[in-house]
Amino acid sequence: MNNSSSASVSGADSSAFSGRVTTVLQITDCHLLSETGKRLLGVDTEDSLRAVLSQALSEFAPDALLATGDIAHDPSAEVYARFTAVVAEYFTGPMLCIPGNHDLWAPMRSILAEPARLDLEGWQLLGMDTHVDDDVAACLRPTDEARLREACVTAEGTHLLIACHHPPIELGSPWIDKHRIQEGGELLEWLSEYSCVKGIVFGHAHQMVDTSYKHIAVMGTPSSCFQFVPRSQRFTIDTTMPGYRWLHLSDDGSIRTDVRRVEDYPLHIDLSQGA
């Protein structure tokens, strides 16, 4: 059975949309391994990524694809090349990829473009790199903050959607929250001073999050492989299916978002195949 959750955020119901709508597919936390067929916690992560892309691309033809980190679990140029090859089987349009804590910058950068921005119709999709090589915790760099501030000041009628790996808010899971963007509250507060900022999307948490800070939609997306139990006090794997998020961006600044999960996927969690 297909499990999905739809929401209208950032100020409008989808029925009120008028004019052009730009569609972005967000995938996250793919955790691709060094060998095809290899499993992580019982999941063939390349196979689950293919299942996500196959279902999603049968539903819509997006204008862009967004991958918000932990693309690789075994971070090498070969794994990032395999990621791009798998994606290209389903989608060949614009793509923005953000590194996560399992990614390594040098091999990722050798294959994928820097996580700067995508210019879409009436929107800018801005990448914010919160990762540090070989460290789980988030880092909010002054250079990224300065770039975001400049984008806010110079938006001139363009709506902004910000993408990062780590959550900027607490999720009620201490083992996840200790690695969130610690300055997330301050970040959201000054971003809320700009009406052009409509949303921020993230990964890392392996679960769906749909909330808001003032007028800004704050959205976390399920992993394309395995999930974490929401509000768990320690590392706990959920049995919900791999997922993805649709972001329908209206030229009036509204966002309609839809989190979906793959149907009838043979998900078999095996904790002996460690993370």
SSE layout and pairings?
Elements: E1 4-9, E2 21-27, H1 45-59, E3 64-68, H2 77-88, E4 95-98, H3 105-111, E5 117-120, E6 123-127, H4 142-153, E7 159-163, H5 174-177, H6 184-191, E8 197-202, E9 209-213, E10 216-220, E11 243-250, E12 255-261
Parallel strand pairs: 2-3, 3-4, 6-7, 7-8, 8-10
Antiparallel strand pairs: 1-12, 2-11, 5-6, 9-10, 11-12
Structural notes for this entry:
The protein has 275 residues and is α/β, with parallel strands linked by helices. It has a single domain (20-261), classed as Purple Acid Phosphatase, chain A, domain 2 (4-Layer Sandwich), CATH 3.60.21.10. It contains six helices and twelve strands. It has a six-stranded mixed β-sheet with strand order 1-12-11-2-3-4, with no helix packed on it. Helix 2 links the parallel strand 3 and strand 4 (95-98). Helix 2 (77-88) runs parallel beside helix 3. It is globular, with a radius of gyration of 17 Å. The relative contact order is 0.23. Mean pLDDT is 93; it is low at 10-16.
Annotation keywords:
12 strands; single chain; alpha/beta; Purple Acid Phosphatase, chain A, domain 2; 275 residues; 24% strand; 6-stranded mixed β-sheet
Largest sheet geometry: 6 strands, mixed
Secondary-structure element order, N to C? EEHEHEHEEHEHHEEEEE
Oligomeric category: single chain
Number of strands: 12
Roughly what fraction of the amino acids lie in strands? Answer: 15-25%
Q: What is the count of distinct domains?
A: 1
Structural class: alpha/beta
- Tell me the CATH topology: Purple Acid Phosphatase, chain A, domain 2
Q: Could you say which overall geometry the principal axes of the C-alpha atoms support?
A: globular
